[in-house]
């Protein structure tokens, strides 16, 4: 099968890499891709956010499957245009992608589907925001209702800072969702969906803050690891039963079936499982860690989802090793990242045992040298017999890479490797109670 992957980032590089190892996949193309993807497959200078341009490229290539990577083309209706042109597409249509594009919409779906989530209020002005902040108290959680590339959330004990973030969203013409704070460790779970059937991948944990010890502003993600040895054995089954399947059923009931990957951002609180957020695509950087362990051919899985045939898919197989992904970001990320600097040491890092480099914000300069062109520049992904070994290899690879002003966290998966993550005994309320709590 010939596959077209739309998107420019690390997630897409990881997807392309996995597709190339699938014996059913004969050819892979990317648009627009990046410097790392271009080393593997042909890249096309096409605007992936344009439904017309993406469809024209798929027609030209005679693609058998199109995989839409990022959130922006999903929200722009790229999947819809491709489906109307007759292509199997892995990625939800514009209406279904509202699960990510609007946090208020996602809250509404969760309420109707009985999915346990944080109590929340939608605010459209400073007065409503202040009232909501005072209702829930500190720590304050303020989320931009629209797409913000993972950087639209502020969690703070400073009420003025929370109000200021809300005000900046209002001034940009948006609204905000203000929530109760959820305690407990966070988990990311990707669930493949074909509109009716759900197939979970392995859970991962992401690190959102820019600095060690979860300090500094939120980013799109500074690293991840998988699997989660500390997670309850029944976690995945519970997420499917109480979160993913009810959500997919509700979307189908509305006539907007969800086809693609439902990213479930979860908190394992002292009061039980709670959804923090949904995304409508593979998360970055969790994808890099999860796909590094997936042994089942990816192309067949994504095609089965696109065609509504996940119920016929084989049981997933996973490598026994642990995977750790560490992100290298540009200087001044997540504000105004420095761009244009040369990146050195990539071959050395890729030569480390069980290590590979995933490109995100990279391109080639006039001399054919790799340079940084984005906030999150690349990720070093490593496999090891356990988290300790995987971490050692990932950081060994990272230390070989040179980027002026580059920054990365030194504590990715550290607490888990030391066995310091504990999940409190969880009370699991009945579905009706969960639905009541989800009311915004």
- H/I helix tally: 16
Radius of gyration: 21 Å
Strand content: 15-25%
Number of strands: 21
Number of structural units classed as domains: 3
What's the CATH topology name of the largest domain? Answer: D-amino Acid Aminotransferase, Chain A, domain 1
Specify the helix fraction band.
Answer: 25-40%
Q: Supply the CATH architecture of the largest domain.
A: 2-Layer Sandwich
Shape: globular
CATH class of the largest domain: Alpha Beta
Low-confidence stretches: 427-440
Give the terminus-to-terminus CA distance: 45 Å
Question: What class would the helix/strand composition place it in?
Answer: alpha+beta
What is the compact description of this entry?
By secondary structure, this protein is α+β, with helices and mostly antiparallel strands. The protein is built from 16 helices and 21 strands.
């Amino acid at each position: 099968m010939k596959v077209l992957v739309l998107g420019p980032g690390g997630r897409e590089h990881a997807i392309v890499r996995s597709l190339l190892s699938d014996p059913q996949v004969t050819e892979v193309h990317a648009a627009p891709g990046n410097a790392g993807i271009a080393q593997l497959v042909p890249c096309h200078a096409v605007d992936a956010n344009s439904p017309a341009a993406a469809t024209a490229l798929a027609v030209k290539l005679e693609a058998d499957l199109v995989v839409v990577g990022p959130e922006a083309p999903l929200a722009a209706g790229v999947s819809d245009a491709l489906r109307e042109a007759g292509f199997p597409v892995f990625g939800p249509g514009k209406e279904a992608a509202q699960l990510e594009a609007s946090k208020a919409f996602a809250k509404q779906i969760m309420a109707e589907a009985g999915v346990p989530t944080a109590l929340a209020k939608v605010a459209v002005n400073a007065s409503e925001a202040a009232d909501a902040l005072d209702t829930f108290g500190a720590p304050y959680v303020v989320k931009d209702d629209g797409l913000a590339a993972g950087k639209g959330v502020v969690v703070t004990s400073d009420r003025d800072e929370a109000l200021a973030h809300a005000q900046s969203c209002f001034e940009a013409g948006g609204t905000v969702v203000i929530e109760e704070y959820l305690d407990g460790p966070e988990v990311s779970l990707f669930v493949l969906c074909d509109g009716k059937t759900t197939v979970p991948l392995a859970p991962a944990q992401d690190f959102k803050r820019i600095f060690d010890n979860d300090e500094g502003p939120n980013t799109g993600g500074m690293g991840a690891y998988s699997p989660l040895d500390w997670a309850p054995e029944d976690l995945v089954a519970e997420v499917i039963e109480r979160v993913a399947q009810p959500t997919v059923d509700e979307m189908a009931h509305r006539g907007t079936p969800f086809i693609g990957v439902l990213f479930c951002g979860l908190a394992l609180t002292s009061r039980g499982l709670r959804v923090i957020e949904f995304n409508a695509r593979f998360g970055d950087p969790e994808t890099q860690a999860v796909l590094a362990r997936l042994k089942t051919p990816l192309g067949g899985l994504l095609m089965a989802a696109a065609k509504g045939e996940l119920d016929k898919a084989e049981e997933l197989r996973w490598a026994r090793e642990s995977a750790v992904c560490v992100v290298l970001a540009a200087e001044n990320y997540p504000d105004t990242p420095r761009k244009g600097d040369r990146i050195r040491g990539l071959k050395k890092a890729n030569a480390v045992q069980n290590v590979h480099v995933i490109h995100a914000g990279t391109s080639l300069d006039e001399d054919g040298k790799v340079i940084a062109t984005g906030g999150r520049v690349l990720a070093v992904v490593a496999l090891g017999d356990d988290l300790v070994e995987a971490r050692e290899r990932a950081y060994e690879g990272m230390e070989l890479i040179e980027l002026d002003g580059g920054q990365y966290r030194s504590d990715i998966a550290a607490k888990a490797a030391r066995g310091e993550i504990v999940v409190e005994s969880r009370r699991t309320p009945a579905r009706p109670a969960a639905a009541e709590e989800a009311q915004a």
